[in-house]
Design a protein that fits this description.
alpha/beta, single chain, four-stranded antiparallel beta sheet, 428 residues, 35% helix
Length: 428
């Protein structure tokens, strides 16, 4: 009875409740299993993942990855960003903004201050949705770059539109210290000579392949310096690899464990071995075609690319920020992101083709008037010039456990009642 009461009031449970030394961990696991059967809210995931991932019990992907899709967001952007904040970076965030979003430009400006934002996608929806969509242009990106210490942990930025972002944006995104991949869909006329501009800013440029070759593997190979035979071995099974990784993300029951970073298997080496076996490890998971948008693993592309970039760079962005990276989280032979990942998608992009990479939707000027461009940096972040942090940053107070803003209204009466319920566990 007590566990069910806690589950019903889980939105009011805080880190202080679970940090009590007299509360046996076995009760936390029992509450978590109950929540898994009922459906886990974000507040519950934040507090339980922090405590249970540190335990030696059997853990699953559901503790390490949280996914939520809000089809028609009706609040301002700050309403959705507030719970995603983690000043202590207990987790990193993947945010996908697409259709049915009417956020103002000044709201988008605040994204650069989200310290734990790791992947940002802003994808303009299809015309037929007839939706108001925030303008993403060079001015916004310049505004991001002018904020103190912008996007300190952002590794991946994807901006898909039609006419607003130009190659001038390259000079601005270059100031984001951790950014390794900048993926753009924009007007061809605004990106003439982009390869030369990119080289001048320290980027390399490729134009993604289309159709069946438009895969996650293509992005991974941008950062890979292996022998020539491996790409040929993998390319023929690229679509199967995509499906296998999507099926992996579909299930929250995949077992995970921590191992020393030095023992972590190479991500692409494992894909090569799995490809030879036709990915038999993961195709038996329920297919994603039959799932609703609420359960569709929209985060697959970002999840694996973020993990691979982390392995490729030895997580230098996290190390630079003062976080421990001596351990890696793996599921069998697949290396997961070095921090738990919270994924939020706002709206629908209108893509008729569900898949690991959505179809380009917004083509107001005509399909052949736009093109996709991918810019990537393979040099170590420690070797690139970094902006010096201001003295004021060093004077900021240290974040204390339990003080991370959650966006939930406090309710003291419920908190006292929950304390009483948790106390009952100790006496049982």
């Amino acid at each position: 009875m007590a566990m069910h009461t806690v589950a019903e009031n889980i939105g009011d449970v805080t880190e202080q409740h679970l940090a009590r030394e007299d509360l046996p961990k076995r009760y936390l696991w029992r509450i978590w299993r109950l929540l898994e059967n009922r459906g886990v809210c974000f507040q519950a995931w934040k507090v339980f993942s922090k405590f249970l991932l540190a335990e030696d019990d059997e853990k699953t992907l559901g503790l390490y990855r949280y996914r939520q899709h809000i089809c028609q967001p009706s609040e301002n952007l700050r309403h959705y960003l507030r719970p995603l904040e983690s000043l202590a970076v207990d987790f990193v965030t993947h945010l996908n903004i697409t259709g049915f979003c009417s956020f103002a430009e000044n709201e988008l400006l605040a994204l650069a201050r989200l310290k734990n934002l790791a992947i940002l996608e802003i994808i303009q929806p299809a015309d037929e949705l007839r939706t108001i969509f925030p303008k993403v242009d060079d001015r916004l990106i310049r505004g991001w770059s002018e904020i103190e210490d912008p996007f300190p942990l952002l590794r991946i930025l994807r901006l898909w539109g039609d006419e607003a972002v130009t190659q001038k944006s390259l000079q601005y995104v270059s100031s984001f210290p951790s950014l390794a991949l900048y993926d753009v869909n924009a007007s061809r006329s605004d990106w003439r000579g982009a390869a030369d501009t990119a080289r001048g800013e320290g980027w390399e440029m490729e134009e993604p392949l289309h159709g069946p070759q438009d895969t996650l593997l293509w992005y991974l190979m941008l950062f890979d310096f292996v022998e020539e035979s491996k790409p040929r071995q993998l390319q023929g099974l690229a679509r199967n690899i995509d499906d296998g990784l999507m099926n992996f993300c579909q299930s929250s029951n995949q077992p995970i464990k921590s191992i020393p970073s030095r023992d972590a298997p190479s991500f692409l080496d494992n894909l090569s071995d799995a490809a030879k076996r036709n990915l038999s490890m993961y195709v038996d998971v329920p297919g994603y075609e039959a799932q609703t948008c609420k359960g569709f693993p929209f985060e697959t592309w970002a999840f694996w690319l973020y993990s691979f970039i982390g392995q490729f760079t030895n997580d230098e962005d996290l190390t630079r920020a003062g976080f421990e990276t001596a351990q890696k989280t793996v599921s069998e032979q697949l290396v997961l992101p070095s921090k738990p990942l919270a994924c939020l998608q706002l709206g629908h992009c209108g893509s008729a083709r569900p898949g690991i990479i959505p179809a380009v939707s917004y083509v107001r000027r005509g399909l052949f008037a736009t093109s996709r461009y991918t810019f990537f940096r393979t040099s170590s972040p420690s070797n690139r010039q970094m902006s010096a942090r201001k003295t004021a940053e060093l004077m900021k107070p240290t974040v204390q456990l339990g003080n991370v803003e959650t966006g939930l209204n406090p309710n003291r009466k419920k908190r006292r009642r929950l304390d009483d319920i948790l106390q009952s566990f100790i006496g049982s």
